[in-house]
Amino acid sequence: MTLPTAVPKPAAPRVNPLQRIWLREIGMERLWMRPAPAAARPAVVPQVPVSKAVLEAPGLAPAVLSPNAAPAPVTSAAPEQVSGDAVAPQLVVPTERATGRPGIPASILTRTGPPPRPVAKAAAEETAEAPRISVADAAKNATLDELREQVVACTACGLCQGRRHAVFGQGATPTRWLVVGEAPGEQEDRQGHPFVGRSGQLLDAMLAAVGMSRDTDVFITNVIKCRPPGNRNPKPEEIASCSPYLMRQIALLKPERILVLGRFAAQTLLGTDATIGSLRGRVHQLKTDEGAQIPVIVSYHPAYLLRSPSEKARAWQDLKLASRMV
């Protein structure tokens, strides 16, 4: 009879670096590093003497006899297959216990590659984003008040990220003259109104010289409704995003004439790259979507006149040209 032998403690399976990364990724590294719990089985397992004939019996060749094995179904052996005095009417043929640790799937322990990336949600599971409406479509049928709200909430281009206020415009409605500048400056961005500060004071004085006022006769706005950083010229995509607002303002206000101030505003509204020197001093025509023709007079921007006072005489000639038109 073979003496019982002590059952050795199971050693924890080794983890390679890639497996450790995966365990850390799923938050189970600490669980893995804890010592394995003691196996729930007797300290010793009796060894049963079995003859070679029994081991070679059909159906037993794949079996693994191990002191660490779990119990398996009992298989009977014929008495004539056992040699010597010992007769083994029954033979316990265990199957090997799967190695692992509590709570950790075997697929994780046997993984050799890096942890898989999180699977993106299916498109059907994600909230369907509402289709964006273009500025042109939104402004097409808006009233003046609705258009103002659209401008204030506009995020069609990157200029919205650095603005304090979007500058819709200010003045009389209905209006006789529409004055169009280039873009808001620092003071306009702070206050939310067009042509304030020194430029605004000069513009008000110029209009008053020909009997016009922003309170009763003139509506003042800009091609671009948000201040470009550093007062730079707007980019083409910014112009394309903002132009529908200006064209809708023109359609709603129906001015008798348009006074355009500055090279950039004149080139944008008239669709040309001509210099301001060649554009001023004569009357242009702007054709609206409704087919109307509105006279357009080009002049210098008040900020330029503050830097170049000698050009005020030419600006005065432009104002008289605009005031003589019927």
Structure in words:
The protein is built from 13 helices and 10 strands. It is an alpha/beta fold. It has a domain at 135-324: Uracil-DNA Glycosylase, subunit E (3-Layer(aba) Sandwich). The chain has a 6-stranded mixed β-sheet with strand order 5-7-6-8-10-9, with helices on both faces. β9 and β10 (293-299) form a beta hairpin. The longest helix has 18 residues, at 236-253. The protein is elongated. Residues 60-100 have low confidence and may be disordered.
Question: How would the blueprint of this fold be written?
Answer:
Blueprint: E1 5-6, H1 17-25, H2 29-33, E2 44-45, H3 52-55, E3 74-76, E4 90-92, H4 106-109, H5 135-140, H6 144-152, E5 170-171, E6 177-181, H7 186-191, H8 197-209, E7 218-222, H9 236-253, E8 257-261, H10 263-270, H11 276-279, E9 283-287, E10 293-299, H12 302-307, H13 312-324
Parallel strand pairs: 6-7, 6-8, 8-10
Antiparallel strand pairs: 1-2, 3-4, 5-7, 9-10
InterPro entries: UDG_Type-4/5, Ura-DNA_glyco_family4, Uracil-DNA_glycosylase-like, Uracil-DNA_glycosylase-like_sf
Domain Uracil-DNA glycosylase-like: 168-320
Region (Disordered): 97-119
